C-alpha cells in the first residue's frame, strides 16, 4: 500500500516538474522602457495581445495593428493602465493599400519607433488563398507584407537612438522548402501527393524568411534585428485547422495532452519580452531566440539571407507597379 502511494506521489512530482519545464521560462530581465514607442503587428488576440498586456505595465507607448479591433481589451487597458498610451490602427497585411494607410496613420501618431515587432501571422490555410497583391496568403501575411511594412517604417525607426526589429518566427522554419522560383508553393499545391500538406511548407518558408530577414537586416539598414520562436502556444493560430471537422474532433479528444505539452499565451510571449528587455549590448544582432535564450536556427546562411533580401526588393518593385 505504502509503496503504491509513494509511486503515485513520485509520478505526480515528476509530472509537475515536467509540466514546469514544458511551459518554458519567464523573462527575468527588466529595463526602463517608459520612453519607448513599440509597434506590434497582431495584438487583437494570442501572443501579440498578451505581449501588449505585459508591456502595459511599463508606461510606454504601444501601437498595434490587426484586422479586428479588440475593443474590450483596449478599454480594459486604457482604464487600468492610464500611464501607458495604447493605440489600435487597422491593418491588413494581405492588402497593399491597408499597409500604406497604416503607415500614414502611424506617422501621424508618433515621431519615432524604438521597437518594431513583426508578430502577426496566419498558419495552415486549408484552401489555397491569395493576398490582394497576388501572393500566397501565408507568404504575404507572414513575410512579404511585414517586409514591406518594415521598409515603410524605416524613417521612423531611424529617428530612435537605439531602434530594433523583432521578428516572431517559429521552429516551423525547419519545414521549409524556400524556392525563389516557386514562392507561392505552386509546385507543392498542385502535386497529388503533397497538395494536402503544402500549406505547412508554405508556413515554414515564411518563418525561415523572417529569420533570414533578421540576419540580413542590420547590414542593409544599420538597425539591429533578431528573430524568435515563442514555443508551441495555445493561441488562435490553429483556427484554420479547427475549421476542419476531423482536426477539431481530434483536438477535443487530445485536449488534456495538448494542454499539458503546450504553453499559454503568458508563457508564449516571454521570449518576445526577453528580446524587448535585453539591452543593446546583450541583444545579438541577427540572433534567433528560443525559450529566453539564444538558439541556432536551421537552414540559414549568409548567402541565402542576401539572396532573399534582394529577391524581396525586386518583388516589391513588381507589386508596386501592379498596384499603381
Ligand atoms: N501559437 C503557436 O504555437 C506559435 C508557434 C510558433 C510561432 N508562432 C508565431 O507567433 C505569432 C503570433 O501567433 P499567435 O499564436 O498569437 O496567433 P493568433 O492567436 O492567431 O494571432 C495572430 C495575430 O495576427 C493577426 N493577423 C492575422 N492576419 C493578419 C493580417 N492579414 N493583417 C494583420 N494582422 C493579421 C491577427 O489579428 P486579426 O485576425 O484581427 O487580423 C492576430 O492578432 C505568429 O507569428 C505565429 O506564427 C506561434
Automatic annotation (TrEMBL):
<dbReference type="GO" id="GO:0016491">
    <property type="term" value="F:oxidoreductase activity"/>
</dbReference>
<keyword id="KW-0732">Signal</keyword>
<dbReference type="InterPro" id="IPR002347">
    <property type="entry name" value="SDR_fam"/>
</dbReference>
<protein>
    <submittedName>
        <fullName>Uncharacterized protein</fullName>
    </submittedName>
</protein>
<feature type="signal peptide">
    <location>
        <begin position="1"/>
        <end position="17"/>
    </location>
</feature>
<dbReference type="Pfam" id="PF00106">
    <property type="entry name" value="adh_short"/>
</dbReference>
<keyword id="KW-0560">Oxidoreductase</keyword>
Amino acid at each position: 500500500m505504502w509503496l503504491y502511494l509513494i509511486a503515485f506521489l513520485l509520478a505526480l512530482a515528476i509530472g509537475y516538474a515536467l509540466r514546469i519545464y514544458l511551459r518554458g521560462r519567464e523573462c527575468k530581465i527588466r529595463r526602463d522602457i517608459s520612453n519607448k514607442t513599440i509597434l506590434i503587428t497582431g495584438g487583437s488576440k494570442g501572443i501579440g495581445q498578451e505581449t501588449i498586456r505585459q508591456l502595459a505595465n511599463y508606461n510606454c507607448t504601444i501601437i498595434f495593428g490587426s484586422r479586428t479591433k479588440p475593443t474590450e481589451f483596449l478599454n480594459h487597458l486604457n482604464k487600468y493602465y492610464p500611464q501607458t498610451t495604447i493605440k489600435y490602427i487597422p491593418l491588413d497585411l494581405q492588402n497593399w493599400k491597408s499597409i500604406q494607410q497604416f503607415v500614414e496613420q502611424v506617422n501621424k501618431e508618433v515621431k519615432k519607433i524604438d521597437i518594431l515587432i513583426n508578430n502577426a501571422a496566419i498558419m495552415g490555410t486549408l484552401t489555397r488563398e491569395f493576398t490582394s497583391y497576388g501572393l500566397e496568403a501565408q507568404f504575404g501575411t507572414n513575410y512579404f507584407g511585414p517586409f514591406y511594412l518594415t521598409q515603410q517604417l524605416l524613417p521612423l525607426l531611424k529617428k530612435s537612438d537605439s531602434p530594433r526589429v523583432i521578428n516572431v518566427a517559429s521552429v516551423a522554419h525547419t519545414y521549409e522548402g524556400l524556392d525563389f522560383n516557386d514562392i507561392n508553393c505552386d509546385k507543392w499545391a498542385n502535386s497529388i501527393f503533397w497538395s494536402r500538406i503544402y500549406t505547412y511548407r508554405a508556413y515554414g518558408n515564411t518563418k525561415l524568411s523572417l529569420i533570414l530577414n533578421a540576419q540580413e537586416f542590420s547590414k542593409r539598414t544599420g538597425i539591429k534585428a533578431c528573430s524568435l520562436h515563442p514555443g508551441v502556444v495555445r493561441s488562435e493560430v490553429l483556427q484554420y485547422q479547427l475549421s476542419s471537422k476531423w482536426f477539431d474532433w481530434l483536438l477535443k479528444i487530445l485536449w488534456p495532452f495538448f494542454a499539458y505539452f503546450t504553453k499559454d499565451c503568458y508563457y508564449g510571449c516571454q521570449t518576445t519580452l526577453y528580446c524587448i528587455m535585453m539591452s543593446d549590448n546583450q541583444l545579438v544582432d541577427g540572433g534567433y531566440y528560443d525559450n529566453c535564450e539564444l538558439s541556432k536556427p536551421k537552414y540559414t546562411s549568409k548567402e541565402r539571407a542576401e539572396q532573399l533580401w534582394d529577391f524581396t526588393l525586386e518583388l516589391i518593385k513588381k507589386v508596386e507597379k501592379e498596384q499603381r
